[in-house]
TrEMBL record:
The keyword Transferase belongs to this UniProt entry's keyword annotation: no
The protein's name in its UniProt record: Nitroreductase
Molecular-function annotations in GO: oxidoreductase activity
UniProt xrefs under Pfam families: Nitroreductase (PF00881)
Organism of this sequence: Phytomonospora endophytica
Keywords noted in UniProt: Oxidoreductase
Length: 188
């Protein structure tokens, strides 16, 4: 496996510099109840506009009905590898509450919550890979979500495994050096 440490212009905390989104999950590893709680607590304490806290979660553990319903909603490309993850977590945005519509920043706030969850996962030697390739309507139907709940992303969570165990078409990206645009292209 290649070095997964990010090449940065200045040193970053190891939790950030070593984080990467693998598709190779250890199918034998089971995330503990304490680890799940820590992930969700990290997400819960993420900042949100006006403390609106729009993030909601559906958590499925490999082998349970919730996991199977989320897995069924993934596109074919994601389903093949995500089935080995310990958890599938759907990040859901609350779009309105009893006071009316939630702030426009709700999707951003859910993203921050998932970033906090991801850093906590790294601290616990877990890995997270988020996916946009899923059927939102299938999730809404499978979990009877109310009209004010919008599925935004699905995260596979577990212990990383050797990428050489992945099928050839998936192995390359997991074994390649991490690449990002330079800061000069990101700062306007």
């Amino acid at each position: 496996m290649s070095d997964r440490h990010a090449v940065t212009s200045v040193p970053l905390h190891d939790l950030l510099a070593t984080r990467y989104s693998t598709r190779a999950f250890d199918p034998e590893y089971t995330v503990t109840d304490e680890e799940v709680t820590a992930l969700l607590e990290a997400a819960r304490w993420a900042p949100s506009a006006g403390n609106s806290q729009p993030a909601r979660y559906i958590v499925g553990r490999r082998g349970d009905d919730r996991f199977d319903r989320v897995l069924a909603a993934l596109n074919d490309g994601n389903r093949g590898w995500a089935r080995h993850a310990s958890l599938l977590i759907v990040a859901v945005r609350l779009t309105a509450n009893d006071k009316g519509p939630m702030p426009r920043s709700g999707a951003y706030d859910v993203g921050q919550a998932m970033a906090h969850l991801t850093v906590q996962a790294s601290a616990d030697r877990l890995t997270v890979r988020q996916m946009a390739g899923f059927d939102r309507d299938a999730i809404t139907t499978a979990f009877a979500l109310a009209d004010n709940l919008e599925p935004l992303t699905v995260a596979a969570v577990g212990r990383a495994d050797d990428p050489k165990k992945l099928p050839g078409d998936l192995r390359g990206p997991d074994d390649a050096p991490r690449v990002r645009l330079p800061l000069s292209e990101l700062v306007l």
